[in-house]
Amino acid sequence: MHEDLERLDRLDRLDRDHFRQDLKIKELRSEHEALRATLGEQEAVLGARQGAVDENATGQRGLQRKLSDYRNSRASAVRLLETGQGDAEAAQRQIDRCEALIDETETELLELLEQADALEALVSEASAAVAASRERLAQLDGSVPEEIAKLQASMASLTEQRRALIDTLPRELVSRYEHWRARGKWAVSRIVGKTCDACRMEVQPQHRSDLRRGRIAPCRGCHRYLIPDEG
Ligand SMILES: [Zn+2]
């Protein structure tokens, strides 16, 4: 293989590594951001559910107060009847009304108590989700900046190696190479199973043997620099 082609092969591998590491950094950042957003949503859900639990507790206290008022009112009517003072019919009506209200209020209270259990279950579920996300976020807060710094250092080293490699290549090869890269495309392709791995066109046996013997002969399909296979 032509030594310039070997260099182009190395240059391409450096650029692909650089690309992958850059992508990895973006993925790490986006995973980190997504988790922060998820945690924010989970905290909002938890807050809303806790609000519902508080509202339920307030409702229960209100009903308890009403119950106690009705029971007092019934007790005083019962006392009136027992002592035989005042209007017995009015006292009986008061007792009947109070008992109806007590029944009704006890039913409402029971409903709130049942809802409270379901609401508490929802709160613990949301609370567990928040705790899990906080734990994961704490891990990422620790690991992501470190991983990104490592990748950036590695990318800086790749950029350095690239610069050195470019200096050893003929200008026209570099210019063609960079033209591909400027359009966001890889400039080099490899022969895999007798075909170009970029455009899938079959590479003729003569072409492959020319490449192995040191010719620089681009792919006839996509015109990328073609790296020969083993034969
Ligand atoms: Zn091709």
Description:
This protein has helices spanning 3-83, 88-167, 171-182, 205-212; strands at residues 188-192, 195-196, 225-227. With 231 residues, it is mainly alpha-helical. It folds into 2 domains: 10-169, Orthogonal Bundle (Helix Hairpins); 170-231, no CATH class. The chain has a 3-stranded mixed beta sheet. α1 runs antiparallel to α2 (88-167). The chain is rod-shaped and about 125 Å long. The structure holds zinc ion. Zinc ion (ZN) is lined by residues 189, 196, 198-199, 201, 219, 221-222, 224.
Ranges with pLDDT <50 over ≥5 residues? none
**CATH C-level label of the largest domain:** Mainly Alpha
Bound molecules: zinc ion
Overall body shape: rod-shaped
Number of helices: 4
Radius of gyration: 39 Å
* CATH topology heading of the largest domain: Helix Hairpins
What number of domains?
2
Structural class: mainly alpha
Mean pLDDT: 96
Helical content (DSSP H or I, runs of 4+): over 70%
DSSP strand (E) fraction?
under 5%
How would you describe this structure in keywords?
231 residues, mainly alpha, Helix Hairpins, 2 domains, three-stranded mixed β-sheet, 4 helices, binds zinc ion
Could you write a compact summary of the structure shown?
The chain has 231 residues and is mainly alpha-helical. Helices cover 78% and strands 4% of the residues.
Task: Draw up the topology in text.
Layout (H helix, E strand, L loop, with lengths): L2 H81 L4 H80 L3 H12 L5 E5 L2 E2 L8 H8 L12 E3 L4
Helix pairs in contact: 1-2
